[in-house]
Amino acid sequence: MSGDNSDLKALIRTIPDFPTQGIQFRDITTLLLDAEGFALTIERMTAMVDGPIDAVAAIEARGFVFGAAIAREIGAGIVLVRKRGKLPGGTVSVDYALEYGSDSLEMHDDAIPQGARVLVVDDLIATGGTVLAAVKLLRGAGAEVGQSLFVIDLPDLGGSAKLREAGVSSDSLFEFEGD
Fold this sequence. Notes:
Distance between the termini: 17 Å
Helix content: 25-40%
Number of strands: 9
Strand content: 25-35%
Shape: globular
Largest sheet: 7 strands, mixed
Number of helices: 6
Radius of gyration: 16 Å
C-alpha cells in the first residue's frame, strides 16, 4: 500500500449486500466522477510503477480505465485482457476457477513480444483469481510480469498474498477490511 491516500479512499462508495447478501461492494464510480480524485489516483498509481515497462495489461472492464491512463503516463502500450469471445482475431486464453464454476480470459495472440516487461492493472484485488489467471496468460505468452497495481486491496480475501507467492508484487493505494 502506498501512503495514506485517505482523501481518495473517502471517494469510494460502499454498497451493502451487492451483488449478494453480506458483500460490501466497493464502488469506484464515485471516485471516477471526481475529476481531481481520478487525476490524483492516476498520478499516485503511476508513481508506484517499478522500473521500465513495455506494456500495461488491463483487466476487463474497470481495469481498462486505470490501465489506459497509466499506460499513457508511462509511455507504454496497453494490452486488453478480456472475457472469452470479446476480442477479434487470433487469441490465447486461460481458464480459471471461480468460487462457483469457472471462467476464461483472453488476449490477442500477438499482443506481447517475448520478454516484454508487463505491468498488470485492475481496480481491485480480492481473492486474486482473475489477476492470477491474467499473470498466467501473460507469462504463457512470454511476458515478464513482476508487478501489479490496484486502487483497492481487500487483504482479508488473500489475493495480494497469492500474487506475492507467484512472484508478482501487489501494490494498491488503500485497503478495506473484510469483503
